[in-house]
User: Which sequence fits this backbone?
């Protein structure tokens, strides 16, 4: 039986890349093959400061796909970057997975994607691959985000996030 092969893809921001890289390293330590997918831009940064590649043997592969922006374009404009990513990367990820799946004994068994790039989960679902979302930030942030609708429903805040006056006894 072939080793599990997981494709891991972070949102291309430093803290997201670092957290998903940590997860990938833990998966490798458990004998799981990992293809870590970065944007072309981040791939150059990560591999120039790279980890000790020998410590992972053939279980960790670092690859990149384009984010849709030209190398000189400003990636600090998150709206522009996110829009470009959504237009370019889903198709490129699908192509990458198809290429991996054509290699002998290398079929992708799961896609683990940063929760900020839900499109990667949709790509995996479309391709019939197991999928998992990874939240790289604190659990407190996630709990807060998941509570917004309840706070609105309970009348504590409105749809714009503005608080209502609360009567204290």
Assistant:
């Amino acid at each position: 039986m072939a080793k599990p092969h997981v494709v891991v893809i972070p949102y291309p921001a430093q803290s997201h890349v670092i957290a998903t890289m940590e997860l990938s390293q833990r998966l490798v330590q458990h004998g799981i093959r990992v293809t870590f997918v970065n944007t072309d831009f981040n791939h150059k940064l990560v591999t120039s400061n790279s980890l000790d590649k020998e410590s992972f043997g053939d279980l960790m592969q670092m690859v990149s796909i384009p984010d849709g922006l030209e190398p000189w374009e400003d990636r600090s404009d998150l709206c522009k970057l996110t829009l470009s990513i959504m237009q370019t990367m889903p198709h490129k990820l699908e192509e990458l997975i198809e290429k991996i799946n054509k290699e002998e004994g290398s079929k992708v068994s799961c896609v683990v994607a940063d929760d900020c790039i839900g499109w990667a989960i949709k790509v995996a679902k479309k391709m019939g691959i197991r999928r998992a979302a990874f939240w790289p930030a604190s659990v407190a942030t996630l709990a807060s985000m998941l509570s917004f609708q309840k706070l609105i429903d309970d009348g504590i805040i409105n749809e714009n996030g503005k608080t209502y006056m609360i009567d204290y006894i």
Notes: The CA atoms of residues 68 and 83 lie 9 Å apart. The radius of gyration is 19 Å. The longest helix spans residues 78-102. The chain has a mean pLDDT of 85.
